[in-house]
Amino acid sequence: MIVQFIAGVVSCIGFAYLFNCPQKAILKAAIVGGLGWLMYDYAVHFWHLSVVVSTFLGTLVLAIGCEILARIEKDAVTIFIIPAILPLVPGAGLYYTLLYFIEGEFSLAAAKGFDTLGCAAGIAIGIIFVSSLTRFLTHLRKGGR
């Protein structure tokens, strides 16, 4: 598990540098991204959940962490969430979908494509859910109706 966490952190650091993230945000976003990847890996291997559900759970963990970091650092959530989310992006799934399609294995391509789309949807829904919940709770805390 510790190796998976370190791999997630290192990949987030690499992408943060590629995207020219602010220096103060790189390590923090990488740690949150590593925690999200760790949640994904734990859900797949220990809870035996599907890749789609595990991606959603990993996204929830890192989106919550990024929202907290954004409030603490008084920065935009996006500077934390963009590098943190990248270990969960289903790049291999897209690659294998296209590979199976090119090789004429249409049933395998469809199956892998649905998994890949499910993972992408899990990421989007996880981020939207946490962002919406944060806005709602902030609105309630400030005395809104």
UniProtKB/TrEMBL annotation:
Entry keyword Cell membrane: yes
As for subcellular location, the record says: Cell membrane
Stretches that traverse the bilayer = 42-64, 76-102, 114-137
Residue ranges of the Threonine/Serine exporter ThrE domain? 4-132
Task: Write the record's keywords in alphabetical order, separated by commas.
Answer: Cell inner membrane, Cell membrane, Membrane, Transmembrane, Transmembrane helix
Q: Please give the Pfam families that the UniProt record associates with this protein.
A: ThrE_2 (PF12821)
Q: Is Cell inner membrane included in the keywords of this UniProt record?
A: yes
Q: Name one GO biological process term.
A: succinate transport
Membrane topology annotation: Multi-pass membrane protein
Q: Which GO terms describe its cellular component?
A: plasma membrane
Instruction: Give the primary localization class.
Output: membrane
By sequence similarity, the record places it as follows: Belongs to the ThrE exporter (TC 2.A.79) family.
What this protein is called in its record is Threonine/serine exporter family protein
Q: Which organism is it from?
A: Candidatus Fimiplasma intestinipullorum
Could you read off the lineage of the organism from its UniProt record?
Bacteria, Bacillati, Bacillota, Clostridia, Eubacteriales
